[in-house]
Amino acid sequence: MSNVTVQKRGDCYQYKFEIAKVNGKRKFMNKSGFKTKAEAEREGIIAFNNYISTGQTFKETNISYSDLLDSWMNNHCYVNLKYHTIEGYSSIVRKHIKPNLGYYKVSQINRHILQDFINNIYVNKSFSKHFLNNIKKVLKSSFTYAYENDYIKINPSIGLKLPKYDVPPDDPAHIFTEEEIQLILNRFKNNHCVYYAMLTAYYTGLRIAEVFALTWDDIDFENRTISVNKNVLKKNQNGGTKQRHLSGNSTTVWYIGTCKTQSSYRTIPIGDTLLNAFKQFKKEQLEHQKNYGDSYMKHYKKSVINQFNNKTEIKIINAVNEINVGLEEIDFVFVKNNGVFEGTDSMKYPFKVIHFELGIPCRFHDFRDTHATRLIENGVDVKAVAKRLGHSNIRTTYEIYVRVTDKMERETANKFEEFSNLKLL
User: Fold this and answer.
1) Number of other residues whose CB lies within 10 A of the CB of residue 2
2) If we measure between CA atoms, which residue out of 315, 311, 219, 205 comes closest to residue 264?
3) Is the dihedral of CA 60, 64, 68, 71 positive or negative?
4) pLDDT of 303 above 90
5) 3-state class of 318 per DSSP?
């Protein structure tokens, strides 16, 4: 039975349907003036459906999914996400989603099409579970954007699932032994920018972008603390080459960025070993500045406007000492002898050496893993470790950074021996 009734009133027809009661009394919505019964019935059904949909009229759009993705990138990603996340999503859109789904109208795409797309990538590509999950994130976020902006009436990305990975992903973390740490530090004892950066990561658990963002005013020698209040990030500009920036042709520009999360802003205490290392490194830098004189490289803050979200960003400007830039100077801790700042790129070649010459399969982030794991296995309260690492809760600390070591396993067995009182034959 239809919810819409059509009645003839004089020479015209009217539609009528019941709406919500007011003060317990039945109410109706109606409109007359239609020349035919069919016209009144058709318009009545449209009006009823609009009423059920809270009065918002939905009009199907002909926009392609490719154009929708462009709108999503410009109006959501560039406004809300961090640079490296945007770069990753942009690559996924360009290489995988647009070639396979971009030619559809966004209103044509249903959940079956999206699930087939994910399944086919899983079958035909050897992507990791992490990367496939990022593809799913792009699909879900873009279609949520389409739904919230009335491009579609039903969100087809709801309920998308990743195929089951039969083989658990390998844990990429490598927990350094003391012997490995000593071997690595000895190998780079003549490259003090690299040496002291690694030492800092090992003794603090800082992320690589936090380490290379450190400036000398972040080191409080009196109170024996390090303040973590920024990151560095690299943006590749259009044009140019991949040569080093001293050639004048680099595509790389460094920026001062915000910390990863709110809890990443922190002040952490440091011990004598790292404190004395900083004092020695600071003394060396002052000597280098004196020796290089006017050719020593300095770094400055320049406020620029992000073209996508109109927010102010801090761009790092480089100039030799003899040039008066007229901007606020940035006194980075980890620079080369001539003052050149290469940011996290400073670690690219050293880790090739660590992998192929020293035979240690690892990443810079493993200094952070090792720092957290050693603290936990030596009885430091996990809440204190989480705060030191900049985590908002201890679950992250346990699940991501703290690994079970041989020492932990041995101590577990020994603890059981201590409280077990069985008398055996």
Assistant:
1) 11
2) 205
3) negative
4) yes
5) strand
Q: Which of 190, 216, 215, 188 is nearest to 202 (CA)?
A: 188
pLDDT band at 128 (very low <50, low <70, confident <90, very high): confident
User: What pTM, to 2 d.p., does this model score?
Assistant: 0.73
**CA-CA distance, 412 to 393, in Å (whole number)?**
25
Interhelix angle 129-148/111-124, nearest 10 degrees: 160
Q: How far apart are CA 120 and CA 114, in angstroms?
A: 10
As a whole number, mean pLDDT of residues 90-102 equals 95
Q: Whole-angstrom Cα distance, residue 325 to residue 318?
A: 9
For residues 103 and 82, membership in a common domain is answered with yes
Residue 419 has pLDDT above 80, yes or no: no
The count of other CB atoms within 10 Å of the CB of residue 275 is 18
Regarding whether 238 and 324 lie in a shared domain, the answer is yes
β 12-22/25-34 pair status? antiparallel
Rounded CA-CA distance 380/399 in Å is 16
| Residues 9 and 74 both lie in one domain | no
Q: What is the mean pLDDT of residues 223-235?
A: 95
Q: How many domains does the chain have?
A: 3
- Whether residue 309 is contained in a domain is answered as yes
DSSP H or E stretch at residue 79: helix 78-80
Mean pLDDT of the chain: 87
The token pair at 209 is: 């972008």
